[in-house]
Structure to design on (644 residues):
């Protein structure tokens, strides 16, 4: 009989609950009539009051004066607030649970005055976008009071959207399934975007390695930083708006990333076309840095409206994005063909920002059709944002462009490396590693090129009659062309040296040969012929005068070699005594420059001219080398033949 009674009472339970509902309306209770599919929403019959009083959790508290609301109705309740709802539960029911949809960290749940474990209030920085949470109900029967103690901070931004809270009740299994379904839906919503931006991230990292490989091409650095910032910002946004992470992640990572991207886009554009960023754009970049630094935190704390901040963001970011394609078009019209390669990618970068911002503006202006521009596109259970598609197209387009740029640059570097190897080989002839033995003289030399291949040279050549020719010079320009000019001068110099010509005659002949053979450029040169008895004949072609025992030897001026075929050179003769020293050097010593722009100068050069060659070169280098440094010293020691 008891079993039959139970079989009959189960289908009659809704009717019994309905009768109980009719008998208890005066008690202002909300009755759970049934659980279709095991659950039922509880969005109706709530009453609410702003403030925070722990007594409001008690079931016996009189809330008849509180306004009645529907959780499904739009509201903008922020700050501290309580919600109360009365249920009438049957004497016998299966284990129940609540499914609460609300901002993570914005509410606590109380049943009959006792707080339930699980949901808790958190600081604003840890509050998340609304998401579901399963809250098991204690076993209770009859009148049951559910209370929500809430605190939605103004800085939580979108968490306080209309209808921020939803509540349902049902069996534990039904609520668990609903909770899992909601979690799955949120994951399906965020998965395509996160996956796509992981692709963007992995596309940006190789560009950073390319910059490490070709460090003189900063466009790789800036496009790599752009893509990394784009990926980190977008993933932060996706995780925040899906409730999988605190919303502050979007505000303090995703939002600043937009400004970093704008700065990187400007730097990349100018670097790609080989232009320096002008002062006006530098100022604009400073504004892009200053705006979030000054207004991001005040907007988060509620001192500024989100609308104010968004309007400023739209103006700055769209201005940056629109300006780049316009600049590229201007450069293309001026003949820079490579600038045209990145116009389409730049427009895609603009699209990723503009589409979202247009939707935001439409929302502010109350234009629903415009406001939906930035809404996602649904593909089955998955949702894809329009700007995500634009970003992936941008990665594809910029990848193609940068591949061709890398290929071209690699070819140029290979060609430059070949030229550099050839120039190094030539350099070894211009600057000998060891000096020949000169009877009666002790020679020292130091050479410190400013680049891998310099333009300075020096030679010590024997002449008929036992005299020795010392030549030091500097070729205009750098690299292979300068080395070739130096080789040309060296070949002519060796040919003329065997004729026994004096310094002035030798420079005159050398000038004429360079004029007839070379294509542009010039060579400064100082020529000295030293006889065994210490007589030194000197002639100068635009080079620095030598020093004798710390004093500069005045020489007649002369034009550099290769300037004009009519150049005339004069020579003087000085007599060295035992122990006298001559110092020949290039202008890299005099023109050394400190970090504050001070030149090493002639006074300092004269003061150290009596030191060893290596010491002079080292002093100028440490002061601040700007050009090749060459020093050659000669000490007259007639009583001995010195082999260095």
């Amino acid at each position: 009989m008891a079993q039959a009674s139970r079989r009959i009472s189960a289908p009659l339970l809704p009717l019994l609950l309905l009768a109980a509902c009719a008998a208890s309306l005066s008690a202002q209770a909300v009755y759970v009539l049934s659980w279709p599919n095991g659950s039922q929403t509880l969005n109706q019959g709530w009453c609410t009051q702003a403030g925070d009083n722990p007594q409001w959790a008690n079931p016996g508290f009189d809330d008849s004066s509180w306004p009645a609301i529907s959780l499904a109705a739009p509201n903008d309740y922020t700050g501290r607030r309580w919600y109360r709802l009365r249920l009438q539960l049957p004497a016998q029911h299966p284990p129940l649970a609540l499914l609460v949809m609300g901002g993570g960290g914005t509410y606590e749940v109380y049943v009959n005055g006792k707080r339930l474990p699980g949901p808790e209030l958190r600081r604003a920085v840890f509050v998340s976008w609304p998401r579901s949470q399963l809250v098991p109900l204690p076993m209770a029967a009859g009148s049951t009071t559910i209370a929500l103690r809430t605190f939605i901070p103004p800085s939580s931004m979108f968490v306080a959207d209309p209808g921020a809270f939803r509540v349902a009740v049902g069996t534990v299994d039904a609520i668990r399934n609903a909770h899992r379904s909601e979690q799955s839906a949120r994951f399906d919503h965020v998965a395509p975007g996160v996956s796509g931006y992981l692709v963007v991230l992995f596309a940006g990292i190789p560009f950073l390695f390319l910059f490490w490989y070709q460090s003189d091409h900063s466009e790789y650095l800036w496009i790599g930083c752009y893509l990394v910032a784009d990926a980190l910002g977008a993933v932060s946004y996706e995780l925040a708006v899906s409730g999988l992470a605190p919303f502050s992640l979007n505000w303090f990572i995703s939002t600043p990333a937009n400004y970093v991207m704008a700065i990187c886009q400007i730097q990349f554009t100018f670097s790609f076309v080989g232009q320096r960023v002008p002062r006006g754009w530098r100022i604009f970049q400073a504004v892009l840095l200053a705006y979030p630094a000054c207004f991001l935190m005040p907007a988060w704390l509620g001192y500024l409206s989100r609308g104010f901040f968004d309007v400023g963001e739209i103006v700055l970011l769209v201005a940056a994005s629109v300006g780049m394609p316009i600049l590229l078009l201007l450069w293309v019209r001026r003949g820079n063909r490579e600038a045209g390669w990145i116009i389409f990618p730049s427009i895609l970068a603009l699209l990723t920002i503009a589409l979202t911002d247009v939707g935001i503006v439409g929302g502010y202006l109350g234009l629903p059709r415009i406001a939906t521009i930035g809404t996602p596109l649904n593909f089955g259970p998955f949702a894809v944002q329009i700007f995500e598609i634009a970003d992936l197209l941008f990665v594809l387009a910029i990848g193609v462009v940068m591949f061709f740029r890398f290929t071209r640059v690699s070819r140029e570097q290979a060609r430059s490396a070949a030229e550099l190897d050839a120039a190094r080989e030539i350099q070894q002839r211009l600057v000998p590693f060891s000096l020949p033995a000169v009877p009666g003289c002790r020679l020292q030399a130091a050479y410190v090129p400013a680049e891998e291949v310099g333009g300075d040279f020096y030679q010590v050549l024997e002449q008929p009659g036992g005299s020795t020719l010392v030549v030091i010079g500097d070729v205009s320009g750098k690299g292979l062309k300068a080395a070739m000019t130096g080789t040309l001068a060296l070949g002519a110099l060796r040919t003329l040296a065997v004729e026994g010509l004096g310094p002035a005659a030798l420079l005159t002949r050398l000038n004429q040969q360079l004029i007839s053979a070379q294509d542009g450029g010039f060579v400064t040169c100082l020529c000295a012929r030293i006889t065994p008895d210490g007589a030194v004949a000197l002639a100068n072609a635009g080079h620095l005068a030598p020093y004798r025992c710390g004093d500069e030897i005045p020489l007649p001026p002369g034009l550099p070699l290769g300037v004009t075929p009519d150049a005339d050179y004069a020579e003087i003769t000085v007599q060295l005594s035992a122990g006298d020293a001559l110092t020949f050097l290039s202008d890299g010593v005099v023109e050394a420059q400190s970090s504050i722009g001070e030149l090493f100068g002639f006074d300092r050069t004269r003061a150290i001219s009596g030191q060893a060659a290596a010491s002079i070169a080292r002093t100028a280098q440490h002061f601040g080398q700007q050009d090749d440094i060459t020093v050659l010293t000669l000490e007259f020691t007639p009583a001995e033949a010195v082999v260095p």
The radius of gyration is 42 Å. Residues 436-642 form a domain with the Phosphatase 2c; domain 1 fold (CATH 3.60.40.10). Residues 1-36 have pLDDT under 50 and may be disordered. The CA atoms of residues 281 and 544 lie 43 Å apart.
